[in-house]
Amino acid sequence: MQSEKDFLGLKGVPLAVVEEILNRAADMKRAYSAGEKRAACAGKTVVTLFYENSTRTRASFELAAKALSANTVNIAVATSSVSKGESLIDNGKTLDALRADAVAIRHPAAGAPRLLARNMAAAVINAGDGMNEHPTQALLDMFTIREKFGAFKGLKVLIAGDVKHSRVARSNIYGLKAAGADVTVCAPATLMPAGIERFGVRVAKTLQEGAAGADVLMALRLQLERQKSGMFPSIQEYNRFYNINTEIAGLARPGAIVMHPGPLNRGLEISSSIADSDSSVITRQVSNGVAVRMALLERLLGD
Ligand code: CP
Predict the structure, then answer these.
(1) Could you tell which of 48, 51, 55 is best to mutate to test the pocket of ligand 1, judged by most ligand atoms within 8 Å of the CB?
(2) Helices (H), 88-224
(3) E strands, the chain, where?
(4) Of 206, 147, 146, which Cα lies nearest the Cα of 176?
(5) Does 55 sit in the ligand 1 pocket, CB within 6 Å?
């Protein structure tokens, strides 16, 4: 269980809480789109502490905090005192001493946000930890799906690609299953976690099988370094069997949407003809990330 102070993952989070965040995000989206600044976090300080690279998540946390009138501090770990050997816990104590109210942390080690949360007074938000979770990405994905379809119950969602190493896949599975969606995963055997059925998902043997009749096609970024560790034989073969292209998208339901958390490997896990098509909601996902993070910051820091 996570405390009310923090937001560390979607595993075990009650559906009512997810729905409250998504409902508030709809209001935040209206305000943000209208250029309206809210005062919910006035006088509060939000820190982004990223031990891994990011464009979307880090920038949208900063924009969300600013849209709620918070002060923002961005710590790029490469140029911080971490490079002099400062530990994660000492980092947390330092940020507490500087009176940070919330810290959005991305870290290559699963569990790092939980360790930080236990050792600092500020609210800790998981912005992606190793292969564990990326809960705000899943929330923005759910928000985007709900905008299109209105509800989750019975929706057929295919998550395709490197499921094994994907924190995006894990958080989406927790959130979407709790909301009643019918989730199917598809990956090469070496990129599928053992015992994935325990998550309550269906496993498709081929991308064609998984895409047939789907409402949502969610492609995952292939982590190219996995090839070096022998997880799949060649980029060409991966592309041949796991690329969401026009043929695959044509198997989905009329009106289906195509999603990708970004950054994209165009022509590898998703073809440009699909990423840039009318069915793609990839840029909408990015925009919705600000609204969802505003809703979450308001929940954790608002009066
Ligand atoms: N989707 C996502 O986490 O993107 P960034 O790595 O750019 O934050």
Answers:
(1) 55
(2) 88-97, 112-118, 135-149, 167-178, 207-211
(3) 45-50, 71-76, 102-107, 123-129, 156-160, 182-186, 202-203, 216-219, 257-259
(4) 146
(5) yes
**Does the beta carbon of 59 sit less than 6 angstroms from any atom of ligand 1?**
no
How far from chain centre, in Å, is Cα 277? 22
Q: For residue range 64-92, list pLDDT tens digits in order.
A: 999 999 999 999 888 788 888 889 999 99
The DSSP string of 93-119 is HHHHHTT-SEEEEEESSTTHHHHHHHT
The predicted model scores a pTM of: 0.96
Q: Report the alpha-carbon distance of residue 276 to residue 299 in Å, rounded.
A: 34
Structure tokens belonging to residue 182: 């019918």
Residue-wise pLDDT for 260-281, tens only, equals 999 999 999 999 999 999 999 9
Residue 21 amino acid letter: I
Atom of ligand 1 nearest to the CA of 221: 1
Using a 10 angstrom Cβ sphere, with 0-12 exposed, 13-18 middle and 19 or more buried, the burial of residue 301 is: buried
Residue of the CA atom closest to atom 5 of ligand 1: 54
Evaluated on CA atoms 268, 145, 15, 114, the torsion sign reads positive
Q: Do the Cβ atoms of 297 and 102 come closer than 8 Å?
A: yes
